[in-house]
Amino acid sequence: MNNDASKLAFASDYMEGAHPAVLDALVRTNMESTTGYGLDPHCKAAEKAILAACECPGGEVWFLEGGTQTNRVMVDALLRPWHGVMAAKTGHVAVHEAGAIEAGGHKVLELPHANGKVAAADIRTAIESHTTDANREHMVEPGMLYISQPTEYGTLYSLAELEELSATCRAAGIPLYVDGARLAYALAAPENDVTLPDLARLADAFYIGGTKCGTLLGEAVVLPQVGAIPGLFSMIKQHGALLAKGRILGVQFEALFEDGLYLRVCSYADEAAAAIAQTLKKHGLEVPVPQQTNQVFFLATPEQLDFLAAHVDLGFMEAWPDGRSLMRLATSWSTTPQAVEGLLKVVHGMAI
Amino acid sequence: MNNDASKLAFASDYMEGAHPAVLDALVRTNMESTTGYGLDPHCKAAEKAILAACECPGGEVWFLEGGTQTNRVMVDALLRPWHGVMAAKTGHVAVHEAGAIEAGGHKVLELPHANGKVAAADIRTAIESHTTDANREHMVEPGMLYISQPTEYGTLYSLAELEELSATCRAAGIPLYVDGARLAYALAAPENDVTLPDLARLADAFYIGGTKCGTLLGEAVVLPQVGAIPGLFSMIKQHGALLAKGRILGVQFEALFEDGLYLRVCSYADEAAAAIAQTLKKHGLEVPVPQQTNQVFFLATPEQLDFLAAHVDLGFMEAWPDGRSLMRLATSWSTTPQAVEGLLKVVHGMAI
Amino acid sequence: MNNDASKLAFASDYMEGAHPAVLDALVRTNMESTTGYGLDPHCKAAEKAILAACECPGGEVWFLEGGTQTNRVMVDALLRPWHGVMAAKTGHVAVHEAGAIEAGGHKVLELPHANGKVAAADIRTAIESHTTDANREHMVEPGMLYISQPTEYGTLYSLAELEELSATCRAAGIPLYVDGARLAYALAAPENDVTLPDLARLADAFYIGGTKCGTLLGEAVVLPQVGAIPGLFSMIKQHGALLAKGRILGVQFEALFEDGLYLRVCSYADEAAAAIAQTLKKHGLEVPVPQQTNQVFFLATPEQLDFLAAHVDLGFMEAWPDGRSLMRLATSWSTTPQAVEGLLKVVHGMAI
Amino acid sequence: MNNDASKLAFASDYMEGAHPAVLDALVRTNMESTTGYGLDPHCKAAEKAILAACECPGGEVWFLEGGTQTNRVMVDALLRPWHGVMAAKTGHVAVHEAGAIEAGGHKVLELPHANGKVAAADIRTAIESHTTDANREHMVEPGMLYISQPTEYGTLYSLAELEELSATCRAAGIPLYVDGARLAYALAAPENDVTLPDLARLADAFYIGGTKCGTLLGEAVVLPQVGAIPGLFSMIKQHGALLAKGRILGVQFEALFEDGLYLRVCSYADEAAAAIAQTLKKHGLEVPVPQQTNQVFFLATPEQLDFLAAHVDLGFMEAWPDGRSLMRLATSWSTTPQAVEGLLKVVHGMAI
User: Fold this and answer.
1) Structure confidence by residue, pLDDT tens digits, D152-169
2) Neighbours of D344 (CB within 10 A)
3) Taking the C-alpha atoms of C262, C266, C268 and C273 in order, what is their torsion angle to the nearest 10 degrees?
4) For residue C155, which of C122, C194, C213 has the smallest C-alpha distance?
5) Minimal Cα–Cα distance from B203 to chain D, Å?
6) Which of A244, C176, C278, D331 could bridge C169 with an S-S bond, Cβ 3.0-4.6 Å?
7) What is the distance between the alpha carbons of residues D136 and D84, in angstroms, rounded to a whole number?
8) Per-residue pLDDT of chain B (352 residues; tens, 9 = 90+)
9) Given an 8 Å threshold on Cβ–Cβ distance, is B243 in contact with A66?
10) Nearest to B72 by CA among B41, B104, B27
């Protein structure tokens, strides 16, 4: 009952259920009777473990169900009505949330990007050009910055870059929010130098992705300062984002954080992606976006694509001007060495 | 790690995880690789099974995460901007959703109720008084009717009542929407004469509750006519209600519907509630709301309450004018005969 | 080209254009060239004159176009997303704004009323019952109080009542907002003891009605503390409530406030309403709502109504259980002694 | 009491009150007693005259107060929740409405432009790329096209261009909406070949600007098909856009349309703008946007700007990369030959 059981599964990183340790925790705690709405002991324990991992004991953690939901709730919670959210024009909030941000009443103020990353200089320009415009009160005020780590293109902000973005936002008095839907892939990446404590120190709010990193569902929002957002419980409820059995989110994150599993759960996925990228390049395929985490973007001719698609589930991104297609292969916490080996063989076969 | 492990758990019906058959299905399918966003084979199979149970092959089913979310999405999807939703003033949408309906732009037009149920005559009055008001265009137009089966007070609409509500709505050209958060408790109730096929025939949309009826999370919206609501997929996404791993909802409902488990999963809960209500009455406690499903509402003096609360987790509803409190005991699919026996003993002990 | 030129015009108080002094000011200033958006010298002068009349030099004034618009903008500006506005269930925001408050995302929390007025005790009950409810975060938090002076029934809050409402709100930390759509009729009423300085002292925001009190359009929002609402200019713009030629509002309020015209412009309307109420009562018609300002509510049999309606434009309010109708006669700043005399003759004729 | 009485007024086209004929109509009708909310005889007469001018007897006309308000109401009325509005990235809805469109829940889908104009080819690309995207349901669907005639840069769509845009929209089944805030300047322009009947034939909704074309306030929305938008009255009310004394809008448009004044009221403004543009060019100043209506955009060095700004109120648009500034001079229906002569002298003086 695979997507197509005869194909190798590299279409995305949310195709399987939960990591065995996570599933096991759900099974083990299933018949416990606990309070609802995230006020249970598992959510408390998960919060504590996460804050410890973030070296941020004075913070708080909220558990939500999915990425778009988390982004919408947090944007609505962080902004006032006359504010917009700055984001790369490739940012998830700008493109693939079916207008969720606008449905919440806010404009996405699109910024230029390089491989999905925004530059502090562009943030400064956007803020300054708003501040100095005589008609600024007729325009949407930049009220927060949204970035994703890793980005939608799998790339990473370095610690130096994140420091500069954070300093820029703080100088302007606007919050920095980090979408960590795939954060475990960043944390496990060889090139990464941004830790959870760094995020807690530099961001005003960020979320630690579960759905794509080993849970059935769930994202953990970290607010480094407890009480930073008044009314948040009610806003979560109002958005339909408050789970009655909230403890199923707590249980899963407890499993990921009680012994540091989150930091290593995606290591193999990153390694495998590196091997795939190398093999593609070795066989002459262009990889126009630097592979840093679990997503490999490459250009394929129609013939190459036909060959690949016959054996592998993969993702189409966009038509390239020269007739090639930008494609994506994604590994995940569930990717096996067997599947990677299979894929590398297919690539090799295609190249022959 | 119970709410309070030393107490009997009758506080609500969402305190435990999933029914063993449901959990088992999640475990069994965990490592399958499937498409996301509810387009997977399990969601398809669950949809088919649900439509079969509803004798409604021309319908469609959508899986969402929780009750408030489902109500908000469906109200937003069924109404145009100048419409409001009629509901009992005790309805979940009117009271306990933190203003979710209004956050979506719509007024809840409150109706009188009897034990949580609205009467067709009051619907007719509301519609007619709007229609004949010279200022009607300055007022909110009733655009749909929201009811819950069972209601927030555990009571049931009879088939005759539902037929009349449906006919009233259809005569006025407005949709009837049924919140079935606890529908399994209605379907299993001895007094119930409203079947799933009746709901599919008489409602324009309804949802089959999972969260309170044996799943970890999830509600199944049934639209008896496929395609009745254009843009629904995008609206679900926009509300942050589209789960990436949508298949975990499909898997759970598949388990509940493939062999009719949903129709019997709450039978014992209803039986137990009847026994509890009888025992309370036998010992002289007033049960002011007819017990029909899994919720028992009764009045307790401060002394009775103290005694009960020392042994049982139960719910406070409201202060009664005479100094007593309206309390709630709720059974669930997970309630055991041992717990019921324990509770009955406590009641007996209190009465002595 | 009257509504029906053959009838006496008592249907409402917005049937004619502007008071001659107001119209004259518009004519006199018509070809001046000024900055737009309310930043012109006339708006500044009107603001200064209004703040002087309110004995509130540290406040600020914003000019909007109409009552529903002003209420929606101010509710949206004063509330956060999880808040609702408390109001009498007869309040304009609760009934006759086509759901504008809900379209802005907020619930109207309806309060009981006596002739359109709310009581401080009911406010306290509403706030306390929210504060002490274990599920309060699942419910809409009372975030402000809306009252109208005079009310939709033409009745007046006394200074003592207003003091108590204000103290109640301040004790709870929520703003008090006063809708003064017909404020000039209150200020000119013999029984009134609430002055503009009282309003500025006791309310957190209120508006001085223009549309029903002598202008072509326009309402002046007074914020007793300058800068109390950040982002207000942009929120007004966002609501489509910012007039390019904002000065036409300033010019009109300048005319009403530069020499105190606003305080006397509705005196005759109030006097005339008192005479009408007395005459109705003298002729045996019941006046179930105390006449205090320019609106007279009375009960008419079908025969009386037929007779009246043949000669007078008047308003239907609601069907009375005994077959009579609750009707409204409204005077205005434009009502003439001739019209009143005519109306009294009709009442006399009807009674014969 | 001018903006700065010592300077020539070319800052914008909403600096003065109403055209004398419009003001005279307001004065003449001031003490008439009419029904409110636009249901009066003047609104009816103005509607009839406008539909006659549009050769569109089967249409309907709605009177609103200002441009941003009209755009927000119409976008909200024409779109469903999952739709966005396509517009030039320089369009008023995209830039200068403080996020009004997003506050209404909709994304502005920005299109490339040439001097403020969009091309049918780009519309087709936008629609087709949405339609063929596998993730289209996760993205905002283009639900209407917004254009302005003349554009924010004063340029004009030709009839051929408008025909193509209209055909493109109709082929895709999406409405075309035209913002005519400055429509009188288009209709009077020598190069213009788009008439009111053309707009009524090719657009699904458009508005005839009053505020910038001779009224105190007011815009007339034309729907070529009566009843095309259900619930519109209530939506206007809900947006706070329904004027109690609606007749003051009807009276003004009646004055503009009863004898065709609207078609000639801006003729001199266009002529004057042409003269100004020619003079600027003659003196070596670059005019980078073709002058077609009442707005003249030109580039000035810092020295030129200092000289001009000492004598003339004018508008700053943007800093040019080479150190010059893009400036705007706007004429209006109220511009006098004396003022133009004065301005031309200043330009001449600057050039010396």
Assistant:
1) 999 999 999 999 999 999
2) 18
3) -160
4) C194
5) 23
6) C176
7) 13
8) 345 668 999 999 999 999 999 999 999 999 999 999 999 999 999 999 999 999 999 999 999 999 999 999 999 999 999 999 999 999 999 999 999 999 999 999 999 999 999 999 999 999 999 999 999 999 999 999 999 999 999 999 999 999 999 999 999 999 999 999 999 999 999 999 999 999 999 999 999 999 999 999 999 999 999 999 999 999 999 999 999 999 999 999 999 999 999 999 999 999 999 999 999 999 999 999 999 999 999 999 999 999 999 999 999 999 999 999 999 999 999 999 999 999 999 999 987 7
9) yes
10) B104
Tokens of A171: 């100088």
| Distance in angstroms (rounded) separating the CA atoms of residues C102 and C83 | 11
Distance of CA A304 to CAs A295, A312, A343, A347, Å? 19, 12, 14, 9
3-class DSSP state for residue C347?
helix
| DSSP state letters, B198-223 | HHHHH-SEEEEE-TTTTSSS-EEEEE
Which residues of chain D neighbour C68 with C-beta distances below 8 Å?
Answer: 237, 240, 242
Return d(Cα C23, Cα D328) in angstroms, integer. 33
Partner chains of A (3+ C-beta pairs under 8 Å): B, C, D
Indicate yes or no: CB of C81 within 8 angstroms of CB of A76: yes
In order of their start, the domains of chain A are 20-263 (3.40.640.10), 266-351 (3.90.1150.10)
Strand order in the sheet with D295-300: D295-300, D325-330, D315-319
* pTM across the whole model: 0.97
Using a CB–CB cutoff of 8 Å, tell me whether D164 touches chain C: no
Neighbours of chain C (3+ CB pairs under 8 A): A, B, D
Q: Which of D82, D233, D235 sits opposite B234 (nearest CB)?
A: D82
Helices (H), strands (E): how many in chain B? 15, 12
Shortest alpha-carbon distance between residue D121 and chain C (Å): 31
pLDDT at B1: 36
Q: Tokens 């958060």 label which residue?
A: B181
**Residue A128, min C-alpha distance to chain D (Å):** 13
At C2 the pLDDT is 43
**Integer Cα distance of D13 and D213 in angstroms:** 8
pLDDT at A4: 65
Half-sphere exposure of D13 (CA within 13 A, CB side): 31
- Give pLDDT tens digits for D211-223: 999 999 999 999 9
Cα C112 to Cα B78: distance, rounded to the nearest angstrom: 31
Please tell me whether residue A311 adopts helix, strand or coil conformation. Answer: helix
**Inter-chain contact D95–A137, Cβ cutoff 8 Å?**
no
Interface test with C, best of B69, B72, B92, B138 (most C CBs within 10 A): B138
Chain A residues closer than 8 Å to D84 by CB: 99, 102
Q: What is the pLDDT of residues C159-201, one digit of tens each?
A: 999 999 999 999 999 999 999 999 999 999 999 999 999 999 9
Residue C157 CA to residue C150 CA, distance in Å, equals 7
Contact (CB, 8 A) for B277 and B344: no
Contact B98 A234 (CB under 8 A): yes
C348 touches chain B (CB under 8 A): no
Contact with chain B for residue D235, Cβ under 8 A:
yes
Residues linked to residue D328 through DSSP beta bridges, in sequence order: D297, D315
Helix (H) or strand (E) holding C312: strand C312-313
Q: What share of chain C is helix, strand, coil (3-state, %, to 5)?
A: 40, 15, 40
- The answer to whether the Cβ–Cβ distance between A233 and C137 falls below 8 Å is yes
Of C76, C82, C137, the CB nearest to A81: C76
Of B99, B107, B138, Cβ closest to residue C140: B99
